[in-house]
Amino acid sequence: MTKKAVVWIREDFRIEDNEALAIATQNHEFVSALYIYNPKNFDKKREAQKWWISKALENFNLDLKKLNITLEVQLGDELEVLSNLKKKDDVTVYWSKVYEPDVINKGKKIRDQFIKNEIQYKYFKGNILVEFQEMTKDDGTPYKVFTPFWKKTEQFYISKLPPKFIKVKSKAKKINIFKKSIPIKEILPKKDWHKKFEKYWIPSEQEAKKYLQELINNRIEGYGEARDIPGVNGTSKLSPFLKFGQIHVETIWKKCQDIKIKKMGYRKYINELGWREFSHSLINYFPQMLKGNLRKDFDNFPWVKNEKFLKAWKKGMTGYPIVDAGMRELYETGWMHNRVRMIVASFLVKHLRIHWNEGEKHFKNCLVDYNEASNVAQWQWVAGCGADAAPYFRIFNPILQGEKFDKDGIYTKKWVPELKNMPNKFLYKPWELESKYQEQIKVIVGADYPKPIVDHAEARNAALDLSLIHISEPTRRYAIS
Length: 481
Fold this sequence. Notes:
This protein is 46% helix and 6% strand. It has 481 residues and is α/β, with parallel strands linked by helices. Mean pLDDT is 94; it is low at 473-481.
């Protein structure tokens, strides 16, 4: 047994329910926590998450200091940094898995290097309920449909003995194993737009626990209905904390099981955890979907390249208020309400017929809760080209969606303040309000707020016509069933 241990932190910024960190502190005299910042994983791809990581590191460092554990932040490629460890360093490396194909492949190379350098190592299950390899159909093939996947997965998880997490042990003395750490602030995005995030988020383990307790105490009972209403605080907002492991999914599961009377809200929320599991399974069994359509009959679909429309969509200037509200919420907070995510995604791929890749890349860059598996799976679900996907001809009507789910305009008027005086009858179709009344409320459509960049009916009909030509009959029939 070596005297020293390195715990490689990736998506587990927490003390509680952190098996790798706990085992290291129980078995080694000195423990260092290592975070490797690889700019290639973030530059021009995940700008919002640079902010989250920098703040998460600051808060995690405070927690580690109380335990006499050093946080070391290294810059560079993960393989190169870890290859610097040699047998003479007298160190064992611990880490938790991350379930992304590229990360898994790099992990194999790192393990090979450890063997070559005679470095002891051990890795643990990551932030997931069930390893994706454990969950296949009876014939050994992977699931492509959510309901049977989650039914079997949930039963499998429940049947297992509940995990017994070991507590992290405080150390007598701190130690540094690597060269001088880079300043955490170097990770921050170069542009200042992220500073607004500080009004909305505290990326810490303690904050994650508060969100979870708030969900259990006040929201989960009505979650089934409230999660669809963007104007109320009806969702858990735990997704960014889950992404970076400020809380473990098993911690959430256990808290949910403690609810004495489990109503529909409980079931709806547990199913959301199931979709997260399903997405991780999909990208590992079908890694091709990370770069293209899972359903190959979409490969020849005539997507439109229109930079003007794409820019209007990104800026929240499409002329459709519920769409614009969502895109502005995203830019302001690094997060978007789940119902609205579906609306804005449908608008991009069906009204504008712009490839879902463009939306996926924009969300990847702007979301603090970006998760590779969930982001790709959800975009393909909306586009109709993924597993268990919504049919392409299911086109969200941005007018009706606004009227149904934000009928009082609380959400829309918050993020599109130009329309704060717009009568609710015309809020989601402001172009229909007579010019004289637009002048009275001081919002001229086409000047103070944009006209619709496409006509809803025309865009919908065009998308439907193209789907009949370019999407195969079996796929359409499957989607209907």
